[in-house]
Amino acid sequence: MPESKRSGAGRLDGQTRLLLLVNGLFITASMLSGMFLGIYIWKSTHNFVVLGWFTLMNHVFMALTFWIAGFWAKKGRSGTCIRVGIGVSAVFYGIVLLLGKQAVHYVWLLGMVQGLSVGLFWLGFNVIYFEVTNAANRDRFNGLAGVTGALVGMAAPWSSGFLISHTSGEMGYRIMFMTSVGIFLAGALVSLLLHNRDPEGRYEWGLPVRIWRVPDCPWHPVIGALIAQGFRETVFGVMVSLLVYIQTGSEMKLGNYSLITQIVAFAAFYAVGRWLKPGWRKIGMLLGVIAMTLVILPFFAGVNYVTLLIFGVGTALFIPLFTIPMTSSVFDLIGTNEESVRQRAEYVVLRELSLNAGRIAGMAVFIAVLSVSKEPAVVNWMLLIVGSSPLVSWLYMRSRLHPRKKTAGAGAA
User: Fold this and answer.
1) pLDDT, tens digit, for every residue of 273-291?
2) Which candidate, 13, 60, 110, 304, has a CA 20 to 30 Å from the CA of 360?
3) pLDDT: which is higher, 331 or 356
């Protein structure tokens, strides 16, 4: 049924809070090791492109996993997708532990396994997220999820940096990876309390293609906005932490950098999640994307710890104005009418395929540019062009940034 008629509007029930807990455990394990996994690979190669290939394979297999596992979610097994995804994440870090320094020779395999794990988890998470939230409480949920991510982002990378800096050789990395495995296993156990839903009809395998045949479909601009969002995410996800490490040569200073930026993110997500009203999404998102672009400009004066900190703090301060309206508006669209609600699994897959199309394109640009030149000016222009893509997202989304806007045919495919 349309979201306005679903029970529990405006509050977070037990399943919603449980989903926040499972999400918190997953991102804790991921953040504990994820930031330093790139450093681990970098130390063995000193090659941006190798790290780029790992990330590219990750996103390719994540996209494939979303599309294929959508069938599973349609059968009401979203909770199972989450559990299997968390389990495969534990297997991923188990493989890293077994390979040790040889992991750099298997970046394609590692990228495939991580893409599979992340794809399964986020598909299940997003389907259940849609089912347990509604237009009235979605901004609140996203704000709390952002606060959780910021709190974890304060503690986990700093703890990892401290551990690595105060142990010899690879011991700190190995303890960190083993801890992530343990937290993933705990998350899988907690996720057993998430309810699977009843299956609803036949899975529409071809919806991502057929939707383009629908005239004036409201998903057309949304897809463009999501691609632009993904285009930025992957490049900055790889570059920023690596640049901080290269500039400082210290895992501890990278942990400190993460602690500072996540303290700012915590406050920003809390404020935006609490006070950003649906009617303010349009202007709020515009201010956010302009600020996210401007904080890249100091890199042209030189990439150093100070300019990286300006970028990190500025991004942490303003990115909630971008991500919260984007996420809430897209899921509001899925809840527009009964047809789109029945096809929620397909639309979640469409959302994730669009994001990953942007991530794949962004990483392809990253690999291509750095294969040709690593000159600072070239890298800075790439970062500015890629980093300004949220402006494209706003241009596509500006007509949809209104609460409860009913659009005929929103669920047509």
Assistant:
1) 778 777 788 888 999 999 9
2) 304
3) 356
